[in-house]
Design a protein that fits this description.
Elements: H1 3-28, E1 42-56, E2 62-65, H2 68-78, E3 82-87, H3 107-119, E4 126-131, H4 144-151, E5 155-158, H5 169-175, H6 202-208, E6 217-223, E7 226-232, E8 245-252, H7 254-268, H8 275-279, E9 295-300, H9 302-314, E10 320-325, H10 331-342, E11 346-351, E12 356-357, E13 360-361, H11 367-375, E14 380-384, E15 395-399, E16 410-415, H12 421-424, E17 431-437, H13 441-455, E18 463-465, H14 474-486
Parallel strand pairs: 3-4, 4-5, 10-11, 11-14
Antiparallel strand pairs: 1-2, 1-8, 1-9, 3-6, 6-7, 7-8, 9-17, 10-15, 12-13, 14-18, 15-16, 16-17
Helix pairs in contact: 1-5, 2-3, 3-4, 9-10
């Protein structure tokens, strides 16, 4: 081998070592202080369930009953001085499902109208909208709704995802060796846009392969009566408007914690949200407002995992543990569900079939092989009935057996986080809330919501039983595990 061959071989080795080193660093680098945080339990003034329900009647016709963004618009209309919203998907892109768009609700535009109207009031509240750069295809797409917001004086924050660890380290190791410095051009697109908009650049797809995301879905406003926050599983995204989702509106001190959490994310992009603004009228104070009897705490990222695992381990004989998930893949959660069933708890898992997404066909991963594994261990599993839309809720509901034990409390964990490594292991940004108490109306409402979906009566068909045709095989099971462990997946 000549000197040129040795030089090329040495250069290749250096690049490979640099790639490996950067992949490791991006996987373990320190995180900002509020990532993966469990906030203190707060007394709740009022908590209510909101649901976007999609089901099928006796004739097989799709029926909708949607509440979440109607409530969001109402909250924005009541705001006085400050609105902070963090939404993962906030756009009108329809993917390959554009042929179905006549049924899509224009929720992105409706929410934009509400925010612009709030800015036009006198006095106008300060509005901070935090979102994910996926909405602009990482700078490769102009979003007319965003221009409207900025023209109205809304502060639009594109989350700096490079503050997060690598979700797909095999790619991110190479990306951060220099590709991340490539600029993007919203007018220079030449590749088909899988999300349904104008053509995009190659750089947009290269950025997408990092699979990092600010996946949160929160809205917090100050009202004359106090502070309110909405923590949801739903995105204000037109092509998501037929999905099944749930949200909790919570009035009281929790709002101050949500503001503080979102202020951290906004600060990464140089936007400061003064905490004093969110605490002046009482959400940070233990004032004399009447309590609902519920307590709630904000959970982000890895703290959601820890709380979910703790509630699953708490499930005892006679307890009911219900779980609804768009994606279920986290190995610790799956193992916990199997243990709970073996202890004698009634464990029911309602899953999206993972067969469709915005007009694209999918292979059923990860939920198809996970369902088989759970069924073999005594966990009850049903599939959501879907026809293009998604069963997008993320709910863990523990209802304790009626007992004289005064410490026994029902609990629900609900929010943006799918039950996967990417969502629970401090990779994506996520926000969920844990609500606990005894004989709470909101727990009853959630139980009724789950029971109706599970039982699926003829006039309200929303789920079906697992059958042999759903068997995915051992290869699919190992494939999902490899994809989950390496990050080479979209779940």
């Amino acid at each position: 081998m000549g000197w040129l061959g040795k030089a090329l071989k040495g250069s290749l080795l250096v690049v490979l070592l640099a790639w490996l080193g950067m992949a490791i660093w991006q996987s373990v680098k320190p995180l900002p202080s509020d990532v993966g945080k469990a906030w203190p339990m707060r007394s709740v003034e009022r908590v209510s369930l909101l649901a976007d329900r999609t089901w099928y009647d006796r004739r097989g016709q799709q029926q909708l009953d949607q509440q979440i963004f109607d409530e969001a618009v109402s909250m924005i209309g009541e705001a006085r001085r400050l609105i902070v919203m963090d939404m993962f998907l906030f756009n009108r892109l329809e993917g390959q499902a554009g042929a179905r768009s006549a049924r899509f609700r224009p929720i992105a535009e409706r929410l934009t109208d509400a925010l612009v109207a709030a800015r036009q009031r006198d006095p106008a509240p300060r509005i901070v909208v935090i979102t994910d750069p996926l909405n602009t295809l990482y700078g490769g797409q102009q979003v007319a709704l965003y221009q409207r917001l900025e023209d109205a004086g809304v502060e639009l924050v594109m989350t700096r995802l490079d503050r997060l660890r690598a979700s797909n380290p095999l790619w991110s190791g190479l990306w951060h060796l220099g590709l991340h410095r490539l600029g993007n051009d919203s007018e220079g697109g030449w590749l088909p846009n899988a999300f349904g908009g104008e053509p995009v650049t190659l750089r947009s797809y290269l950025a997408l392969l990092n699979f990092r995301a600010n996946h949160r879905k929160t809205l917090t406003v100050d009202r004359a009566q106090g502070w309110s926050t909405l923590i949801s599983t739903a995105n204000p995204h037109d092509a998501s408007s037929l999905h099944s989702n749930v949200a909790l509106r919570i009035d009281g001190a929790l709002a101050g914690d949500v503001i503080a959490s979102e202020a951290e994310v906004a600060s990464w992009s140089g936007v400061e949200v003064a905490l004093a603004d969110s605490r002046e009228t009482g959400p940070g104070n233990a004032d004399s407002r009447q309590s609902s009897g519920a307590e709630a705490r904000l959970l982000t990222e890895g703290a959601i995992r820890d709380a979910v695992l703790a509630r699953i381990e708490e499930a005892s004989p006679g307890d009911r543990l219900d779980l609804a998930a768009f994606y279920l893949a986290h190995r610790e959660v799956i193992a916990g569900l199997k243990r709970a069933a073996s202890r004698g708890a009634t464990v029911r898992v309602l899953l999206d079939p993972n067969r469709e997404a915005f007009g694209f066909s999918k292979g059923g991963l990860p939920n198809q092989p996970v369902a088989e594994e759970l069924l073999a261990s005594g966990v009850q599993v049903r599939w959501c009935l879907t026809s293009g839309e998604q069963c997008h809720s993320k709910v863990v509901l523990l209802r304790k057996e009626a007992t004289a034990d005064p410490s026994a409390r029902d609990a629900v964990i609900l929010g943006s986080a799918n039950l996967t490594r990417r969502n629970l292991d401090n990779l994506n940004l996520e926000s969920s809330v844990e609500v606990t108490g005894r004989e709470l109306p909101v727990i009853d409402a959630l139980g009724q919501w789950f029971d109706l979906r599970w039982e699926s009566p003829p006039h309200h068909r929303a789920s079906r039983a697992w059958s042999e045709r759903d068997a995915s095989g051992r290869l699919a099971a190992w494939r999902y595990r490899v994809m989950e462990a390496t990050g080479l997946s979209t779940f």
